[in-house]
Design brief:
The protein is mostly beta strands and 59 residues long. Helix content is 0%, strand content 27%. The chain contains no helices and three strands. The chain has a three-stranded antiparallel beta sheet with strand order 1-2-3, with no helix packed on it.
Amino acid sequence: MALKPGDTNVFGMQITALNGRMVDLECPTCRSRGAVAADEFQSTRCGSSACAASQGRTE
């Protein structure tokens, strides 16, 4: 599957841009932004304290 801007994963993280092997992401809930390796996109959750409890974290 080729990733493209606008794609979202199961946690709602949305791709805003592609940068080689990295993707820029935005959380639709708190609007935090970040980047992650493209092969980790599908398992990436928002890391903000505002969203941690709402994205299935149990640690």
